[in-house]
Amino acid sequence: MRGLGGVFTRDLKIQQTDTVTGASRMDTIVIGPGGAYPEWSATGPYQGCLQIAAAWRASMLLSDLIGRLPWDEYRSRPGAGSGATGAEDPPEQLPTPPVLEQPSPPDTRMVTFASWGLDALFHGNAIGIYADRDRLGYPTAMIPVMADQCWVKRVVEGDELPWPPGSLAYWIGPSPNFEMNPYLPGKWYSPDEIFHVKGPCRPGALRGMGVLECGLTNGPLGLARTLDEQAAGVASAGVPTVHIKSYDPDFDGGQASELKSKAIETQRVRTPMVTNALVDVLPLSWNPTETQLIEARRLSLVDVANMFGLDAEWVNAGQVSGTYQNIEQKGIDFLRHSAGGWLARFEQALSLIRPRGHWVEANRNAELQADTMTRFQVYELAIRNGILTRDECRALERRPKLTPKQREEALPASAAHEPAGPPGSNNLPGGVPQGSRQPGKPGPQGPSHGAGRRLAVAHRGSDVGGDEQ
Questions:
Q1: How far is CA 86 from the centre of its chain?
Q2: Does some domain include residue 87?
Q3: What are the helix (H) ranges across 3-84?
Q4: CA-CA distance, 179 to 188, in Å (whole number)?
Q5: Which helix or strand (DSSP H or E) is residue 228 part of?
Q6: In the prediction, which pLDDT does 209 show?
Q7: Which of 33, 43, 248, 300 could join 224 in a cystine, given CB atoms 3.0 to 4.6 angstroms apart?
Q8: Does residue 221 form part of some domain?
Q9: What sign has the CA pseudo-torsion 200, 205, 207, 209?
Q10: Strand order across the 71-75 sheet
Q11: Range of 278's domain?
Q12: What pLDDT, in 10s, does the model give residues 225-237?
């Protein structure tokens, strides 16, 4: 097993020797990836695409969802169930392992998975190094690695790599080192040491494709950045504000230059411009909306949203009309069509590092919680039809089970005990309490014939007469 410090290979080591006594010592200066300060480069991370407002919002929506959702582990045991496959139905949910709860301490799960989500969106790949394993060899911790610091290739003869030809090899570092020079920064890793979530790719490709590769050069992201630059340059590249027309037949270029300079100076100092009868100054009116390319930039929002697989309304493209959806329907549509593919990629990659027969699922219910009234109506239907007990519904609301005293006070006498059971009979678990009425059903309540009547007879211990044979 290797601790978290085992993957840092770029620390600076300085050996100091006393020339008089001969004593020496080794000092290690840890070189981190950078300080906790912004990247003040000309473009910033991801080739400056995060400076595009729509790209920032789209990437935050998707990556934050990947980091926000809980990850649950399930297992099935063949032969333990009665289904066609012999598996349990439903599968057993297991305690969340450390690699799913906090894969890269001290960072939280949100930080780690959201950063992987950003790399997956923009570069098409999310990369991590297994930092520790349990006694069975399954990873318990990982270190995220920036995708632009990772290369992948197939081993060929002559690479001097310790793996057979045809296998995959990952290089983590500034640039690939095929000379196996230990003094150069970086290191080769086998696939057993790398966590890799691959985005959309061609068949047999070793890496995925991201929006930078597909949309930056001559694509929607490049167009959006160009439009923003043009709109920002209105002050320096806008149209002139006046047109100077001379009626003097002897008017030459020197006089024209002098007149233009005077016109610019009068505009700068905000003073009136005085001309003679042979010079006419015509003010030019220009439309700020057209100069700032408002309509083109609005259409660019739609293109950026499509690059990230989102509906245009998620990036506030207000001019786009769509089918009416309430908040819950929009959430379902977002999870299913926009984030569904990325969640499935992470689920399957995480399932590969768990024992056989185990799989990982993102708990989508955490994002689909309905309003209070809708939830309680669903609980009522579930209790009435014997799908859930009252205590199970309370657990979904993060409330403790009812104590016997609370049960006596809160529930009718007929339902004060176990409330779940076969519906449709009075004074039976799951049925309608004696004397109450089901909505929309006239007349006496309870079964009047068939199996329900025989069940009621057996429960009450008295013959109601006329039992059906």
A1: 35
A2: yes
A3: 53-68
A4: 11
A5: helix 220-232
A6: 94
A7: 300
A8: yes
A9: negative
A10: 92-94, 71-75, 358-362
A11: 240-285
A12: 888 777 776 555 5
